[in-house]
Amino acid sequence: MSNSFQRIGAKSNAQVGRDFENAALQFFKSQDLILKKNIKIEVGIEETPKKFHAFDLGCKEQKIIVECKSHKWTSGGNVPSAKMTVWNETMYYFAILPDNFKKIMFVLYDYNEKREETLAQYYLRTYEHLVPKTVEFWEYKEGVSAKILHPKKSF
């Protein structure tokens, strides 16, 4: 039975996510950054009791957390609005992470010809007000490289 929301050619969306996490692990390893999967960090707001939240990748000793998103535009070139909600949720978790953590949103490069922008560029243009200043937004082009889209560097 086929799921109409499943990525074409993929066994499952969960497998797509795991494969992207593995690609991210390899990318960061090539940058001499050794991360582990499923890093649990206590988070919470102000004085409320804290709870553990599992992040995709990270290193507690180096205080680095990475969330990986391999989302794409819809097959019709429309905004995958449910996925953008997931990205917003990630920004919330980044906002309540302890300040001493480096926070990286690692997303798949997916260009939309009609809109003339990638999904990450669209997200930052539309939702930048929800992105904490301390979050680095990396866009990964499979087999090529990754570049930082946020924060914008001025030279």
Summarize the structure in words:
- The protein has 155 residues and is of the alpha/beta class.
- The chain has a single domain (15-150), classed as 3-Layer(aba) Sandwich (Trna Endonuclease, Chain: A, domain 1).
- Helices cover 28% and strands 30% of the residues.
- The longest helix is centred in the first third of the chain and has 18 residues, at 13-30.
> What's the rounded overall pLDDT mean?
89
Are there runs of 5+ residues with pLDDT below 50, and where?
Answer: 1-5
Strand and helix order = HEEEHEEEHEE
Per DSSP, what share of the residues sits in E-state strands of 2 or more residues? 25-35%
User: How many strand units?
Assistant: 8
CATH architecture assignment name: 3-Layer(aba) Sandwich
**Tally of discrete structural domains:** 1
Helix/strand structural class: alpha/beta
* Quaternary structure annotation: single chain
What's the structural blueprint in terms of helices and strands?
Elements: H1 13-30, E1 36-43, E2 51-59, E3 64-69, H2 81-96, E4 102-108, E5 111-112, E6 117-118, H3 119-127, E7 135-141, E8 145-150
Parallel strand pairs: 3-4, 4-7
Antiparallel strand pairs: 1-2, 2-3, 5-6, 7-8
Protein name: Restriction endonuclease
Short description:
This is Restriction endonuclease. With 155 residues, the chain is of the alpha/beta class. Helices cover 28% and strands 30% of the residues.
